[in-house]
Automatic annotation (TrEMBL):
Gene name for this UniProt entry: hmp
Site (Involved in heme-bound ligand stabilization and O-O bond activation): 29
Protein name (database record): Flavohemoprotein
Reactions performed catalytically: 2 nitric oxide + NADH + 2 O2 = 2 nitrate + NAD(+) + H(+); 2 nitric oxide + NADPH + 2 O2 = 2 nitrate + NADP(+) + H(+)
A Pfam family matched in the record: Globin
UniProt cofactor(s): heme b; FAD
InterPro entries: FAD-bd_FR_type, FNR_nucleotide-bd, Globin, Globin-like_sf, Globin/Proto, Hmp, OxRdtase_FAD/NAD-bd, Riboflavin_synthase-like_b-brl
Top enzyme category: oxidoreductase
UniProt remark on domains: Consists of two distinct domains; an N-terminal heme-containing oxygen-binding domain and a C-terminal reductase domain with binding sites for FAD and NAD(P)H.
GO terms for biological process, alphabetical: cellular response to nitrosative stress; nitric oxide catabolic process
Amino acid sequence: MLSSATLSVVRATAPALAEHAQSITKRFYQLMLSEHPELWAYFNPAHQQSGRQSMALANAIVAYATHIENLGVLLPAVELIAQKHCSLGVQPEHYPIVGKYLLRAIRDVLGEAATDDVLTAWGEAYQLLADLLIEREAAIYSEQQSQPGGWKGYRTFVVERKIPECETITSFYLKPADHQSLPEFKPGQYITVKVPPQSTGFRSSEAAATGEIPRGLLSPRNYSLSDQPGKDYFRISVKRESARQEVSPVDGLVSNHLHDGIHEGDRLEIGPPCGEFSIDPVLAARKPLVFVAGGVGMTPLLSMLKTVIAEEPQQPIRFIVLTRNSGSHSHRQELIDLATRCPQLKLHLHYSQPLENDRPGDCFHTQGPVDQNLLKELLATQAAETEYYFCGPSALMQEMISALSGLQIDPSRIHYEFFGPKVALAMA
C-alpha cells in the first residue's frame, strides 16, 4: 500500500498529469524506444504512428490516478493489460525500464512542477501497479504452460487449410507441427502470430514518428480464435488491412503477408491463447443473449456463439451483423447453417452499402447508415436479464455504448471488445 504522504502528492498532481497525459506518453515512447530499440518488438508500429498507442497509455494513466485509492475498480483493466502483456511475452525485467522513462517523461513535460517529491511519489505509485501486473502475469504464464496441451513462448504450427471468407477476410486453420494436443481456450480469446519481418518486406526506413524502427524487429500480432474450443486445430480469420499512407505506411504489413505470402503447408510461430473478453457458456445459457458483430469483430463473437450453442442448443440468441455488404460479410454461410440447425438463433443482417446484387430480404434484412435510432431498434429487447456482447471498430463501439445507455441497460450486462489499443469508451 502507498503511504498517506505519497497518496497526497499523487492526488495533488493527478490533474496536471491528466491535462498533459498524452504529451507525457508521447515523450515516454520517444525516450524509451530511442534508447532501447529492442523494445520495438513489443509494439505495433502502426499504432505508434497513428498515436493510438500513446492515447491508450494516457487514458490508463488518468484512470490509475483517478482510482489510486480504490484499485479494485481497476482490476478489469489490470486483467486486460496483463493478458495483452502475456500475449507479447513481457517479462518482469521490462518494468524498471518502463518506470524509468515514464518518470523522465513526466519531468520533461511538467518541468519545474515535477519536483523530486512528485517524481518519488509517482515512482512509488508506478511500482505498486507494476507489482500487481507482474504477479498476475506470472499466474497467467503458469496457467498457460501447466494445462494439458499448453506451452510457454512460441510453438510451431502448420497451416492446414486457408479458406477465403469474403473479399477481405481469410481463415487459417492451424495445427501443431509436433502433432501434440491443443489446450482448451475461452471463447473470445486470441492467439499471437509472430512473422519474421523480412518476409513482409518490412524496412527500417519505414520509421515510426517516434523514432527509427530497427531492422529485424516487427511486433507479433493478435488474432481472435474464430471457432469453438475442443477442436484439433486453432482457427483465426484475418482481415486484409490497407496501408493508410497519410497515417502509417507500416499498417497492414502482417495481414497482407498472411493473405499473400502464407500458404497451406507453411509454418507459423504461435503464442498461447490470451485475452479477458470471453463468455462462460454455462452461465450464459441461463439468460437471453444479444451479439453484435461489426465487420471483422465477428471473429471472437462467432467463437462465443458456437460454444454457447454446443452447450445449450435451445438458448435464445440474437446475432446482429453490421457490415458494408456481401463482399465484406465473413462467415455468412456458417451463420446461416447455425441458424438453420438452431431455430432459437435469430440472425439480423444489416448492410450499410449493399451491392447491386444484394437483395433485401434474401441477402440482408435492413440497410443504411448505422446510427443511434437503428442501434436502439436492433438492441431493444423485452427481457430485462439479456446480456449484450459486441465487438468491432472503436467508433461503432462508442455508438453501441451510447445506444445501450439510452436504453438504460445495466453496465454489468454489457461486454465488449474492439481491436487495437484500448481507449476509453464513456457511457453517454
